[in-house]
Amino acid sequence: MGRRQRGRFIDGILLLDKETGMSSNFALQRVKRLFDANKAGHTGALDPLATGMLPICLGEATKFSQHLLDADKRYLVTAKLGVRTDTSDSDGQVVQTRPLDFSQDLLMQSLDYFRGETMQVPSMFSALKHKGQPLYKYAREGIEVPREARPITVFELNFISLEGDELTLDIHCSKGTYIRTITDNLGEMLGCGAHVIMLRRTQVADYPYDRIVSLTQLNEMVEKAEAEGVDAKAMLDELLLPMDTAVSKFQEINLADTVAPYLMNGNPVQNPGNCQLADGELVRLTIGEAHKFVGIGSINDDGLLAPKRLIVLRDGVETT
């Protein structure tokens, strides 16, 4: 007999404004509990020091979280110059202090070095895994693990301000970019060292910044609803974005209602209109005039539209 799944069936994406000092997993579990969701997952952890946008996928939306993990991100970062730490942020131990002795020209030239496509060696204090263990666990034991440089892209790197020894930058980058590593490398290029003292993620993919909500705000909503005798979950559910926003960049293919039973059983179907797609290109699948989202698919070797990841359609249960 299978284990009974706890929580309710609720599907959608919450743009959480993660607060400083908490782990992403702690924030995830709090959201899951508040929504009484049967399933939840986040889309790429933020360090405890960091704040900002952390999309939380609930229910069937977890099937598409990888696409947000792979999405571009934007950060606002403040670095303290003149001090280098072993973690490249203020949670670490100071390993070196040096005076600030660089020109504005050198600063601007150094910033330009990081723009565009470069190779980056991940920090030992990252969550990347080596032999099944995250690198930060090795680092805490004083073990150095060889890491290969990985390609990253910095689409924008904007100078915001330099006030005393605090440098603030706005960085739009590809997945897998470590802002702490950029900060540490920049400090070495300037000859003074640097570490992150403030990091805020302001954007994931194309999600609107004005839709983020903190755990503090969520708790206040629940307390207010309970005091007024209102269903708190109904209020919380209104904050959720549709699950297909995680794959909004994919081309949509709309299928007739008559095709739905075949597709939802995992069968390839005819490609309507013979849409031109590259090999392996994923598409967003919708059904009927209402364009109800049902998952993602791609064209197989026979030229048919094959489902790759489908949501579970539950009778009487609306998906957000």
Radius of gyration: 23 Å
Helical/strand content category:
alpha+beta
Q: Characterize the largest beta sheet: strand count, sense, and whether it forms a barrel.
A: 8 strands, mixed
Order of helices and strands: EHEEHEEEHEEEHEEHEHHEHEEE
Choose one word for the global shape.
Answer: globular
Round the mean pLDDT to the nearest integer and report it. Answer: 89
**Can you count the beta strands?**
16
Helix content: 10-25%
Oligomer: single chain
Q: Strand share of the residues?
A: 25-35%
Number of helices: 8
- Spatial gap, N to C terminus: 30 Å
The low-confidence parts are: 316-320
What does this structure look like?
This protein is an alpha+beta fold. The protein has eight helices and 16 strands. It has helices spanning 24-35, 65-69, 104-113, 135-140, 179-190, 215-228, 232-237, 260-264, and strands at residues 12-18, 40-42, 51-58, 73-81, 83-85, 94-97, 116-120, 129-130, 133-134, 150-163, 166-173, 194-204, 251-255, 283-287, 292-299, 305-310. Strands 1, 2, 3, 4, 7, 10, 11 and 12 form an eight-stranded mixed β-sheet that branches. A four-stranded mixed β-sheet has the order 13-14-15-16. It has a two-stranded antiparallel sheet with strand order 5-6. The model is unreliable at 316-320 (pLDDT under 50).
